[in-house]
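Let's study a protein:

===
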Amino acid sequence: MPDVLTADLYDEHGDSLQVMLPGLRDFGGVRRRVAQVSTVACFQDNSLVRDALAEPGEGRVLVVDGGGSQRFALLGDQLAARAVANGWAGVVVFGCIRDTVAIGAMPLLVRALGATPRKTQKRGEGQRDVPVRFLDVTIQPGAWMALDEDGAVISPGPLG
């Protein structure tokens, strides 16, 4: 549904949508996407991001709450390529990524706070498919998210 725009969705649904505050930058080769959400909450450890992206994405967006840390990258080109190969529509990271040039050439929506060359530690810590909260929205696993050049909106049910 790349024709669905967040401003139009907001005009139609208003306050029934959550609107994410600005702050995430576009890094992927795809700018617009409407998809169901899966979540990971982790801090400076992308072990669960790797595990999630190894599974069939079924057109979903993986939303990663990295606690806003900018010390380590929670996504790089290898995990992004895995996401593409496994049918994920996108990855939204409240934290940093790396390998931005390679990721920018992939058919994947990627949003993050920024970039850093430092890879994460691997401790196997974090939680999957739990509610996450950042940039003034709470995102439940299974919710729907629309993202475009204007930002992101979240709905408990399908958008479009």
About this structure: The CA atoms of residues 19 and 144 lie 12 Å apart. The mean pLDDT is 96. DSSP finds four helices and twelve strands in the chain.
